[in-house]
Amino acid sequence: xxxxxxxxxxxxxxxxxxxxxxxxxxxxxxxxxxxxxxxxxxxxxxxxxxxxxxxxxxxxxxxxxxxxxxxxxxxxxxxxxxxxxxxxxxxxxxxxxxxxxxxxxxxxxxxx
Length: 112
Fold this sequence. Notes:
The chain is an all-alpha fold. It has helices at 11-23, 30-45, 54-61, 69-88, 105-109.
């Protein structure tokens, strides 16, 4: 089931999520890269999780010193969508609140 090369505790769920997004017409290409980096982060920091605790999500989505707000928003949006998917499949996952995104980016990216 893990045809995208994901690693870590949620690798199968990430693959299923991408397949679902693509099945409804989304390209979801760059998002695979975001999820691969997120998977590596989870493997390093939360290797035994079965859902997404708040700390794992907010830690990953925190703005990095080198990145612009648009990049942070893009990363966070992918994880927010993934968390919603996890919740819909019976996992417990923290979903970033609507006001998490930097001011003005809700319009550009929607609320995740």
